[in-house]
Specification:
Layout: E1 7-12, E2 17-22, E3 29-33, E4 45-52, E5 58-64, E6 69-74
């Protein structure tokens, strides 16, 4: 949850996606498929942890089957329709 309590970011490892929910409008859930940052093994990586700032920047922690992980910063406005990686 963002520190100001306005947005919730959720990592879904099974769907390989991240969701951002505007808590003032809980029915407006934005879904973002996660694109792997590993070019050598893109199918084994899933988002497993997230954090979101008041300004809407989403941080994603990942896990993959090979035992490696990655933390990436995704500049994302809570009002945007896509995330840039």
């Amino acid at each position: 949850m963002s520190p100001d309590g306005s947005h919730l970011a959720v990592a879904d490892a099974g769907a390989v996606a991240v969701y951002v929910i505007d808590l003032n409008q809980p029915s407006s859930i934005k879904s973002f498929p996660y694109a792997s940052q590993f070019t050598f093994s893109p199918s084994s990586e899933s988002p497993t942890a997230v954090a979101i700032t008041n300004s809407g920047v989403v941080y994603i922690g990942t896990t993959d089957l090979g035992g490696y992980g990655l933390c990436v910063e995704i500049p994302h406005s809570a009002n945007a329709d896509s995330m840039e990686m």
